[in-house]
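Justification of resources, computational component.

The compute hours requested in this renewal are based largely on the per-chain cost of generating structure records like the one below. Each record pairs the submitted sequence with a full structure-token output. That output is archived, and it is also reused by downstream analysis tasks.
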Amino acid sequence: MKKVLALILALIMLFSMTAVAETAAYEGEIKIWVAENMVELTKTYCDKFIAENPEYANLTVLIEAVGEGDAANKMITDVEAGADIYGFAQDQLTRLVGANALIDVAPENVEIVVAQNDAGSVGAATLGETLYAYPMTSDNGYFLYYDKSVVTDPTSMEQILKDCEAAGKNVYMEINSGWYQTAFFFGNGCTLTYDVNDAGEYVKCNVDYASENGLKAFKAMIETAKSAAFVNGSSAGTATNLGALVSGVWDSGAVQEALGENYAATKLPTVAGFQLGGFGGFKLLGVKPQTDEAKLIACDALALYLTSAEVQDARFAAEGWGPSNLESQQADAVKNNPALAALASQLVYTIGQGQYPNDYWTLATQLGDRVLADEFDNATDEELMDALTEFQATAASYVTAE
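The structure output for this chain reads:
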């Protein structure tokens, strides 16, 4: 009997030790990279996280200003020296997974993330069947800003160009960008996507630009660029005589300052009889693989909190970042924000930006540069189709694995 009792006590002690180990606090340092305008806000909520979770009372959080556009390159260059938690743009997901700079979301957090965020942002954080990051925003798309005292019909690109030509105003759109350029092709039903496996390799290119739909889209882009009002660009900060601009929520402050009471925003217009489409994009928060299991648990808990409704609400209030959290999206302030409302109406006509090889962006720039150089102004349909066929074949050549 004594032996049995001793065995039971030993098992109880073992189970207790195991439970303690699973919830053991991490008392080291966690490095976080966020955009410069989010450093103080992130510090505030990290402090709150620590205060509300006593097991992390001795956790040290180091926050550095590294924007979503730079984080991926820095991580890939030196994963070991990189941040433990970092924000990044969704189009960098494949590169980060391939460089072993991202670990998949903790299993206990997956269901929470999927339930609380919109499907587009969850899809953007997923590679193959694996969720690799925590959605932070659903605001990285583009739409139309315009001067409502000049533009009489913002639903038509032809009318926008005509009105701005008459008023001596400029219409800005960056057609030599692989991001903005898709507005024409995707809008007229074309496809250019890549299938990616769990290792981050490009296994298939789905492209049909060399088609009747592609030809019509290409001709519409060429005609748009011919207008005397057209200026290739996408930055409100460098725009002059602004009549209309295709850009995103990050430019809302600069556009409002430029247009004052004439400030307006809406979905992209139609052109040549079809609705302009394009990409939708997202900001994500990733966690780097860790050798210390306790540190990994702490990183996942903190990343989940920093992408919660509470913190997404704070980002919107501070800097206008559009939330991916479904609850946050229903707030009146979000729904009544002109830029976010315009983006929401445009996202209906977009696809979530997946993973693209770096060479694709160069290829798209080259096509746009040829348009801007007037190379196609007098081209025949056959010559335009030849250019699209070459573009399509080159895009397909970037597949890296079977």
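Residues 25-139+282-342 form a domain with the D-Maltodextrin-Binding Protein; domain 2 fold (CATH 3.40.190.10). Confidence is low (pLDDT under 50) at residues 1-23.
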